[in-house]
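User: Good morning. I'm curious how protoporphyrin IX containing FE would be positioned relative to this chain. Could you predict the structure with it bound?
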Amino acid sequence: MSSRQRLLAIKTAIWLCCIAPLVWLGWHVFTNQLGANPLEVVIRHLGEWGLQLLLVTLCMTPLRDLSNESWPIQLRRLLGLWSFAYICLHFVAYLWLDQFFDWTEIGKDIVKRPFITVGMLAVLALLPLAITSTRAMQRRLGRRWKQLHRLVYVIVPLGTLHFYWLVKADTLRPLIFALCVGLLLGYRIVRRRLLQRPS
Ligand code: HEM
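Assistant: Good morning! Here's the predicted structure, ligand included:
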């Protein structure tokens, strides 16, 4: 298998893996299998997949270092855009299904509930990354593109804090996410300091 074919196979697998949770959700909505609080399940499912995919995107640099191959880096854009898609759907589900586009209530929610405030900040920070995700933008911005995309190192901790603040009792899952974020960001700091290699 040539490296181009292998990349295509991995990208196809990523598409299938990323579509699967949406199909699962669509099927459960269609067959009315989401339990007593379907709205909560929809919002949570989309948010959790958004955060998971952000973490998978962050795994690509260590994977490139470990494998000494370039294909993980070539997957970053696809994974990043999928995580953005999930987070957009998560956000729209909140605006629509939870708040019925009542902008006054949404404004109050942003001010009153800290987990919504940090979620909003994370979404706002994600926007410029999604807008500049095209190859043309990457070429146009040059070095500044890399600097701008370091915003992901702020977005992921904000998303994790959002998750931690919203759970009332069972903090195990957000803490596992926080541990993974710490390891992935810590890896980058050590790598920059010791190896002097850009990420
Ligand atoms: C980068 C941005 C964001 C990420 C990564 C994210 C991630 C998450 C995660 C992981 C959960 C919990 C899922 C679970 O319990 O399994 C969640 C729940 C939730 N998120 Fe977000 N989120 C983001 C932005 C937002 C924004 C902007 C809003 C609304 C303004 C929002 C509203 C909510 C709500 C209402 C819940 C459910 C709370 C509940 O069930 O009580 N999120 N989000």
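Residues 40, 43-44, 47-48, 50-51, 87, 90-91, 94, 98, 116, 119-120, 122-123, 126, 155, 159, 162-163, 166 surround protoporphyrin IX containing FE (CB under 6 Å). Residues 29 and 173 are 24 Å apart (CA to CA).
Let me know if you'd like a different ligand tried.
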